[in-house]
Amino acid sequence: MAISTEEQKQAARPVAKADDNVVFVGKKPTMSYVLAAITQFNNGMKEVKIRARGRSISRAVDVAEVVKNKFLSNLKKEIETATEEITDERKNKLNVSTITISLKM
Amino acid sequence: MAISTEEQKQAARPVAKADDNVVFVGKKPTMSYVLAAITQFNNGMKEVKIRARGRSISRAVDVAEVVKNKFLSNLKKEIETATEEITDERKNKLNVSTITISLKM
Protein backbone atom coordinates (compact mmCIF):
# COMPACT_ATOMS: atom_id res chain seq x y z
CA MET A 1 0.00 0.00 0.00
CA ALA A 2 1.38 3.40 -0.97
CA ILE A 3 2.06 5.89 1.81
CA SER A 4 0.79 9.38 1.00
CA THR A 5 2.94 12.47 1.37
CA GLU A 6 0.73 13.62 4.22
CA GLU A 7 1.35 10.38 6.14
CA GLN A 8 5.08 10.71 5.59
CA LYS A 9 4.97 14.24 6.97
CA GLN A 10 3.07 13.00 10.02
CA ALA A 11 5.64 10.26 10.63
CA ALA A 12 8.52 12.74 10.34
CA ARG A 13 7.19 14.96 13.14
CA PRO A 14 8.89 14.70 16.53
CA VAL A 15 7.19 12.27 18.89
CA ALA A 16 5.39 14.17 21.63
CA LYS A 17 2.51 13.77 24.03
CA ALA A 18 -0.84 15.01 22.73
CA ASP A 19 -0.90 18.08 24.99
CA ASP A 20 2.73 19.10 24.72
CA ASN A 21 2.08 21.70 22.09
CA VAL A 22 -0.96 23.31 23.72
CA VAL A 23 -0.84 26.70 25.43
CA PHE A 24 -3.85 27.22 27.71
CA VAL A 25 -4.61 30.91 27.98
CA GLY A 26 -5.95 32.16 31.31
CA LYS A 27 -5.73 35.42 33.24
CA LYS A 28 -1.99 36.12 33.10
CA PRO A 29 -0.66 38.95 30.90
CA THR A 30 -0.81 38.27 27.15
CA MET A 31 2.97 38.29 26.78
CA SER A 32 3.36 35.31 29.18
CA TYR A 33 1.44 33.13 26.73
CA VAL A 34 3.19 34.64 23.71
CA LEU A 35 6.51 33.63 25.29
CA ALA A 36 5.19 30.12 25.99
CA ALA A 37 4.11 29.69 22.36
CA ILE A 38 7.39 31.03 20.93
CA THR A 39 9.31 28.69 23.24
CA GLN A 40 7.36 25.71 21.87
CA PHE A 41 8.32 26.65 18.30
CA ASN A 42 11.94 27.15 19.33
CA ASN A 43 11.89 23.65 20.85
CA GLY A 44 11.10 22.24 17.42
CA MET A 45 7.32 22.06 17.43
CA LYS A 46 5.78 22.53 14.00
CA GLU A 47 2.36 23.30 15.40
CA VAL A 48 1.23 25.06 18.57
CA LYS A 49 -2.39 25.21 19.70
CA ILE A 50 -3.59 28.17 21.70
CA ARG A 51 -6.68 27.29 23.71
CA ALA A 52 -8.97 29.30 25.95
CA ARG A 53 -12.52 29.41 27.19
CA GLY A 54 -15.00 32.01 28.37
CA ARG A 55 -13.68 35.54 28.98
CA SER A 56 -10.11 34.45 28.14
CA ILE A 57 -11.01 33.89 24.48
CA SER A 58 -10.22 37.47 23.54
CA ARG A 59 -6.78 37.14 25.16
CA ALA A 60 -6.14 33.94 23.18
CA VAL A 61 -6.83 35.86 19.96
CA ASP A 62 -4.41 38.58 21.14
CA VAL A 63 -1.74 35.92 21.81
CA ALA A 64 -2.11 34.40 18.34
CA GLU A 65 -2.05 37.80 16.65
CA VAL A 66 1.08 38.92 18.52
CA VAL A 67 2.92 35.64 17.79
CA LYS A 68 2.04 35.92 14.11
CA ASN A 69 2.52 39.66 13.58
CA LYS A 70 5.54 40.37 15.79
CA PHE A 71 7.51 37.13 15.78
CA LEU A 72 6.69 34.41 13.23
CA SER A 73 4.93 36.02 10.29
CA ASN A 74 4.80 32.97 8.03
CA LEU A 75 2.66 30.88 10.38
CA LYS A 76 -0.64 29.48 9.14
CA LYS A 77 -3.61 29.98 11.40
CA GLU A 78 -6.68 27.76 11.80
CA ILE A 79 -9.41 28.64 14.24
CA GLU A 80 -12.15 26.50 15.74
CA THR A 81 -14.74 27.34 18.33
CA ALA A 82 -16.94 25.01 20.34
CA THR A 83 -19.18 24.85 23.38
CA GLU A 84 -18.34 22.91 26.54
CA GLU A 85 -20.72 22.08 29.34
CA ILE A 86 -19.22 22.65 32.77
CA THR A 87 -20.62 22.09 36.25
CA ASP A 88 -19.96 24.81 38.81
CA GLU A 89 -19.50 24.35 42.58
CA ARG A 90 -23.29 24.50 43.13
CA LYS A 91 -23.73 21.72 40.53
CA ASN A 92 -25.39 24.06 38.03
CA LYS A 93 -24.65 23.17 34.43
CA LEU A 94 -23.28 26.02 32.36
CA ASN A 95 -22.35 26.27 28.71
CA VAL A 96 -19.02 27.93 28.03
CA SER A 97 -17.52 28.78 24.64
CA THR A 98 -14.01 27.61 23.78
CA ILE A 99 -11.52 28.56 21.09
CA THR A 100 -8.59 26.63 19.65
CA ILE A 101 -6.19 28.55 17.41
CA SER A 102 -3.71 26.27 15.65
CA LEU A 103 -0.54 27.98 14.49
CA LYS A 104 1.46 25.95 11.99
CA MET A 105 4.95 26.49 10.60
CA MET B 1 -19.50 32.34 -22.01
CA ALA B 2 -20.99 29.82 -19.63
CA ILE B 3 -22.12 31.08 -16.25
CA SER B 4 -21.01 28.82 -13.42
CA THR B 5 -23.41 27.57 -10.77
CA GLU B 6 -21.61 29.70 -8.20
CA GLU B 7 -22.18 32.86 -10.24
CA GLN B 8 -25.84 32.00 -10.65
CA LYS B 9 -26.14 31.58 -6.91
CA GLN B 10 -24.49 34.98 -6.37
CA ALA B 11 -26.91 36.62 -8.81
CA ALA B 12 -29.89 35.01 -7.09
CA ARG B 13 -29.05 36.55 -3.73
CA PRO B 14 -31.09 39.55 -2.64
CA VAL B 15 -29.43 42.86 -3.44
CA ALA B 16 -28.09 44.38 -0.23
CA LYS B 17 -25.48 46.83 0.99
CA ALA B 18 -22.15 45.31 1.91
CA ASP B 19 -22.65 45.77 5.65
CA ASP B 20 -26.30 44.72 5.83
CA ASN B 21 -25.45 41.22 6.99
CA VAL B 22 -22.93 42.20 9.67
CA VAL B 23 -23.72 42.05 13.39
CA PHE B 24 -21.23 44.12 15.39
CA VAL B 25 -20.93 42.70 18.88
CA GLY B 26 -20.34 45.16 21.72
CA LYS B 27 -21.25 45.29 25.40
CA LYS B 28 -24.97 44.42 25.29
CA PRO B 29 -26.18 41.02 26.50
CA THR B 30 -25.29 38.08 24.26
CA MET B 31 -28.94 37.34 23.43
CA SER B 32 -29.42 40.81 21.84
CA TYR B 33 -26.87 39.89 19.18
CA VAL B 34 -28.20 36.35 18.82
CA LEU B 35 -31.63 37.86 18.07
CA ALA B 36 -30.09 40.29 15.55
CA ALA B 37 -28.33 37.43 13.73
CA ILE B 38 -31.44 35.19 13.67
CA THR B 39 -33.47 38.12 12.32
CA GLN B 40 -31.00 38.53 9.44
CA PHE B 41 -31.39 34.88 8.48
CA ASN B 42 -35.19 35.15 8.73
CA ASN B 43 -35.03 38.16 6.37
CA GLY B 44 -33.51 35.91 3.70
CA MET B 45 -29.78 36.42 4.25
CA LYS B 46 -27.72 33.36 3.36
CA GLU B 47 -24.70 34.57 5.30
CA VAL B 48 -24.36 36.62 8.47
CA LYS B 49 -21.03 37.92 9.76
CA ILE B 50 -20.53 38.39 13.47
CA ARG B 51 -17.77 40.90 14.16
CA ALA B 52 -16.13 42.16 17.32
CA ARG B 53 -12.90 43.58 18.60
CA GLY B 54 -10.99 43.64 21.86
CA ARG B 55 -12.74 42.35 24.99
CA SER B 56 -15.98 41.75 23.04
CA ILE B 57 -14.38 38.91 21.05
CA SER B 58 -15.38 36.29 23.61
CA ARG B 59 -18.99 37.50 23.45
CA ALA B 60 -18.92 37.23 19.62
CA VAL B 61 -17.87 33.57 19.99
CA ASP B 62 -20.74 33.05 22.47
CA VAL B 63 -23.19 34.62 19.97
CA ALA B 64 -22.06 32.35 17.12
CA GLU B 65 -22.16 29.25 19.34
CA VAL B 66 -25.68 30.01 20.59
CA VAL B 67 -26.99 30.73 17.06
CA LYS B 68 -25.52 27.47 15.80
CA ASN B 69 -26.29 25.20 18.75
CA LYS B 70 -29.71 26.46 19.83
CA PHE B 71 -31.30 27.79 16.64
CA LEU B 72 -29.75 26.93 13.26
CA SER B 73 -27.69 23.80 13.65
CA ASN B 74 -26.83 23.27 9.97
CA LEU B 75 -24.91 26.54 9.60
CA LYS B 76 -21.32 26.48 8.39
CA LYS B 77 -18.86 28.53 10.38
CA GLU B 78 -15.71 30.27 9.17
CA ILE B 79 -13.57 32.27 11.55
CA GLU B 80 -10.93 34.90 10.84
CA THR B 81 -8.93 37.03 13.21
CA ALA B 82 -6.90 40.13 12.46
CA THR B 83 -5.21 43.10 14.09
CA GLU B 84 -6.39 46.70 13.67
CA GLU B 85 -4.46 49.79 14.64
CA ILE B 86 -6.61 52.34 16.40
CA THR B 87 -5.80 55.81 17.73
CA ASP B 88 -7.18 56.69 21.15
CA GLU B 89 -8.24 60.16 22.36
CA ARG B 90 -4.66 60.99 23.41
CA LYS B 91 -3.46 60.08 19.90
CA ASN B 92 -1.65 56.96 21.09
CA LYS B 93 -1.62 54.16 18.57
CA LEU B 94 -2.91 50.84 19.90
CA ASN B 95 -3.23 47.43 18.31
CA VAL B 96 -6.51 45.70 18.86
CA SER B 97 -7.50 42.18 17.79
CA THR B 98 -10.64 41.61 15.76
CA ILE B 99 -12.70 38.54 14.94
CA THR B 100 -15.11 37.87 12.09
CA ILE B 101 -17.26 34.75 12.32
CA SER B 102 -19.13 34.01 9.08
CA LEU B 103 -22.20 31.84 9.49
CA LYS B 104 -23.52 30.43 6.22
CA MET B 105 -26.75 28.58 5.44
Q: CATH class of chain A, anyone?
A: Alpha Beta
Radius of gyration of chain A using CA atoms only: 16 Å
Q: How would the global form of chain A be characterised?
A: elongated
Output the number of helix runs of chain A: 3
Distance between the termini of chain A: 29 Å
Gist of the model:
Two copies of one chain form a homodimer. Chain A has 105 residues and is an alpha+beta fold.
Structure description:
Two copies of one chain form a homodimer. With 105 residues, chain A is an alpha+beta fold. Chain A has one domain: Alba-like domain (Translation Initiation Factor IF3), CATH 3.30.110. Chain A has three helices and four strands. A four-stranded mixed beta sheet of chain A has the order 1-2-4-3, covered by helices on one side. In chain A, α2 (30-42) links the parallel β1 (22-24) and β2. In chain A, α2 crosses α3. The radius of gyration of chain A is 16 Å and the shape is elongated. The two termini of chain A are 29 Å apart. Mean pLDDT of chain A is 87; it is low at 9-18. At the A-B interface, α3, β3 and β4 of A face α3, β3 and β4 of B.
Write the layout of secondary structure elements.
The structure is a homodimer of 105-residue chains.
Chain A: H1 5-12, E1 22-24, H2 30-42, E2 47-53, H3 57-71, E3 76-87, E4 93-104
Parallel strand pairs in A: 1-2
Antiparallel strand pairs in A: 2-4, 3-4
Key features of this structure:
alpha+beta, homodimer, 105 residues, Translation Initiation Factor IF3, 4-stranded mixed beta sheet
